[in-house]
Amino acid sequence: MEKRFGRFRGIYWQQVFLTTSTVLFTLLLLGALFFLLSFRYSRTQSVESLREMAEAVAAQAAPALEESQGSEAEEQLDRLLRFTASIQKNDYLISDAAGNCLCTTTGEFAQKLPEKLTEKLETEGENIRGVFLESESGARRFASGAPIRSRGGELLGFAIVMVPDASMDVIWRGFAGLYFMIAFVALLLALVAASVMSIRSVQPIRDMVRATRAYADGDFSVRMAETERRDEIGELAASFNRMADSMEQTERQRRDFIANISHELKTPMTTIAGYTDGILDGTIPPEEERPYLQIISDESRRLSRLVRRMLDVSQLQNMDPLRSGATFDLCESVRRVLISLEKKITDRDLDVDADIPDAPILVLGDRDLITQVVYNLTENAAKFARAGSRIYLGVETRESKALVTVRNEGDTIPPEEIPLLFERFHKSEKSRSKDKDGVGLGLYIVKTILAQHHEDIHVTSENGVTTFYFTLSIAQEKRRDA
After folding, report:
1. What pairs with residue 471 in β-bridges?
2. Which of 49, 253, 254, 361 has the fewest CB atoms within 10 Å, counting from its CB?
3. Residues 290 and 347 reside in one and the same domain
4. How far apart are the C-alpha atoms of 296 and 41, rounded to whole Å?
5. Which residue has the higher pLDDT, 283 or 302?
6. Which of 131, 128, 163, 156 is nearest to 59 (CA)?
7. Distance CA 226, CA 231 (A)
8. What distances in angstroms separate CA 413 from CA 153, 216, 260, 374, 384, one per listed residue?
9. Cα dihedral sign, 319-325-331-333
10. Count of beta carbons in the 10 Å neighbourhood of residue 307
């Protein structure tokens, strides 16, 4: 029961109920005003028409009452009333000054007029604008009257025009019927429009509910189908699909990360466990233990570097190096990197072409993080450069940016592999043979640090020359713009 009635508490029924209630309330309010105004208008028009007709009959009857007496006067009045009744389909009555009926077109009201009416007309000289008359048989008429006076102003009698009570409201009933028909059509159209609009609004939400349930179950392939709409629902559907794409990519990266980290951890741990068991069970003779202990030590350090790099990545993703607005000399950081890598460069018999200005170049960012970027790039350049070749490390300014370039001579990186260089744990087949101690996180850390500085890094590799370059914002330019 709760589930059944719960459906009527949904957005669809709420919108339909709200729209229908608003339209219905508006129609009732307008109907009340319409009926009140139209009723008054129709009554006023009917009364005015009867009054004018009574005055016209009084004007025509005055000569007959003034010049004739007895049956001759009654005959003239009868002809007058019948002629008038043939033109205007109403009932008429003419009385003398005392209110006694002289002539009428209806026998039901051939009676003396009420004293209240005759006294009012006689003393105030006003015509009757609208009263209800009842016959002895209970018939009811709406009447309007006018006094009949001679040329000298003497009261001769009264002219009364009578119509059935119901006929007074014929026009008003016509208005009311038309209004009810229009109100019904308007309410029906409002109900249909509210239903259609509610369905258009609610259906995407229901699709989103189903999609979120699928996402909760790990299925990120569900997409919204409302992206062609040009309203807020279309924008929401497009944003929802972009969110789903991002979640799907994140989930894929998470799985790849777990697979990669499992692979990277598996190799050193298997090596360490295998050689350790060999030493413990005597498979490896004591006189041959030292080389294997050295392998165990190297793999342990490699495992430690891997864990440390993973922690570095986790910390970098939560940092905002630009928040403090710190500045440092980029040229000095680059020189320190060259000094720290001097032994590795010399061991590989490499020449260094350093193009670093003597004047300081102040940039915005974290000194240690940018130094790590330059170190990783220069170390990679030295590691993969052809022995006896040259590496280049340069710094220059371009408008409001400082450009850092690291170049080496070695194997050409295939174009399809360049976008993969900055992914976690990525190693090309050629680099695996040359970089046995690496964990595949160096360039990923570089990209992460630069992303935190709102910068990007670019790579080109042609004819054995590979170039990495990135930019940083110059502090003086930033302040001048501010």
Report:
1. 403
2. 254
3. no
4. 108
5. 283
6. 156
7. 10
8. 125, 40, 22, 20, 11
9. negative
10. 13
Written as one letter, the residue type at 90 is: N
Residues 6+ away with beta carbon under 8 Å from 136: 108, 111
Q: Could you give the CA distance from residue 425 to residue 76 in angstroms, rounded to a whole number?
A: 123
Q: Are residues 367 and 301 part of one domain?
A: no
Place of tokens 């008359």: 133
Q: What is the pTM of this model?
A: 0.48
pLDDT value at 167 more than 60: no
Say how many C-beta atoms besides its own lie within 10 A of residue 259's C-beta. 11
Domain boundary (109, 138, 172) is at: 172
Domain count, the chain: 3
Please give the Cα distance from 405 to 152 (Å, whole number).
124
Question: Rounded to the nearest 5 degrees, what angle is found at the Cα of 455, between the Cα atoms of 451 and 457?
Answer: 90
Residue 201 covered by a domain: no
**What single string gives the DSSP state of each residue in 114-167?**
PHHHHHHHHHH---EEEEEEE-TT--EEEEEEEEEE-TT--EEEEEEEEEETGG
Q: Choose among 168, 110, 102: nearest CA to 135.
A: 110
Q: Where residue 143 falls among pLDDT bands split at 50, 70, 90?
A: confident
Residues 281 and 368 in one domain: no
Distance CA 345, CA 350 (A): 6
* Same domain? 290 vs 391: no
**Cα–Cα dist 466/78, whole Å:** 125
What's at 326, amino acid-wise?
Answer: A
Better-scored residue on pLDDT, 239 or 481: 239
**Alpha-helix residue ranges (DSSP H) falling in 68-103:** 70-87
Q: CB–CB of 132/141 below 8 Å?
A: yes
| Helix ranges, 281-366 (H) | 289-316, 330-340, 342-347
Q: Is residue 155 a part of any domain in this protein?
A: yes
Structure tokens at 148: 């009949």
Tokens of 456: 């990007």
Domain ranges, residue 292: 270-316
Residue 177, number of CB atoms within 10 A of its CB: 10
Per the structure block, which two tokens stand in for 399? 């408008």
Q: 242 falls in which pLDDT band (50, 70, 90)? A: confident
DSSP state of 88: S
* DSSP string across 361-375: -EEES-HHHHHHHHH
Tell me whether residue 64 is in a domain.
Answer: yes
Q: Which residue, among 419, 432, 434, 338, has the nearest Cα to 386 in the 3D structure?
A: 434
